[in-house]
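Milestone 3.1: sequence recovery, worked example.
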């Protein structure tokens, strides 16, 4: 998801070792984001930036304050081990990444997310998903709801699976949400960088996928995404 997180307070010595250290290795994700948007990892993390004039801490997370390219490092802990992830952000003026009609944009985005997800599944020997128009419509509703409340709980207090109506409780399903990424490539990279969301994407029990997208330029994150999975 647009990656929610809490910031670790790590030892000063650790911060000294890694501060300003930008690796020339492959990135864990490459995103295009709008200036003013906020980026957050899903798991607890500590961030460092190669140019702090371009990004600032945003309780928690990072807010991009100037256009251009910036490298962000994130320290996460999994299985008792400390890992450093590295992401490249192309920060563009607000609204620049939204240049086509909303209907065309949403349709193209749904297909693009499906293609990217199936590429990841096929690489691992998992059957590809089928895009469902009905589930996409439900995912679009959820995406609009995220502009009000970024949560798996809906604004009216019901859980996210209530979107399936009478099928709720009778299906094997899952939901991934994200905020802040402006392209299908960015949001899929974002989900794949998070163990829980990656698990949903690669779950062989799912057969159908619905993708929702909503844009609200006056909101905190601007771009909101939903994946709804059904077995």
């Amino acid at each position: 998801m647009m990656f929610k997180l809490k910031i670790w307070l790590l030892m000063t010595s650790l911060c000294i070792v890694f501060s300003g250290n930008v690796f020339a290795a492959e990135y864990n994700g490459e995103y295009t984001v709008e200036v003013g948007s906020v980026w957050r990892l899903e798991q607890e993390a500590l961030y460092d930036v190669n140019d702090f004039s371009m990004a600032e801490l945003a309780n928690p997370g990072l807010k991009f304050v100037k256009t251009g390219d910036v490298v962000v490092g994130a320290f996460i802990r999994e299985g008792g081990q400390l890992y450093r992830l590295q992401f490249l952000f192309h920060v563009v003026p607000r609204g620049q990444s939204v240049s086509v009609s909303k209907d065309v944009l949403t349709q193209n985005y749904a297909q693009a997310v499906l293609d990217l997800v199936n590429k990841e599944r096929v690489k691992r020997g998992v059957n590809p998903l089928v895009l469902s128009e009905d589930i996409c419509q439900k995912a679009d509703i959820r995406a609009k709801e995220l502009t009000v409340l970024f949560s798996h709980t809906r604004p009216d207090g019901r859980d996210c699976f209530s979107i399936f109506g009478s099928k709720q409780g009778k299906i094997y399903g899952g939901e991934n949400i994200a905020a802040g990424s402006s392209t299908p490539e960015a949001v899929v990279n974002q989900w794949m960088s998070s163990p829980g969301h990656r698990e949903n994407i690669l779950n062989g029990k799912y057969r159908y996928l619905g993708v929702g997208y909503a844009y609200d330029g006056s909101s905190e994150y601007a771009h909101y995404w939903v994946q709804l999975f059904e077995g």
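Residues 1-25, 98-102 have pLDDT under 50 and may be disordered. The helical segments are 12-18, 102-123, 133-146, 184-192, 195-201.
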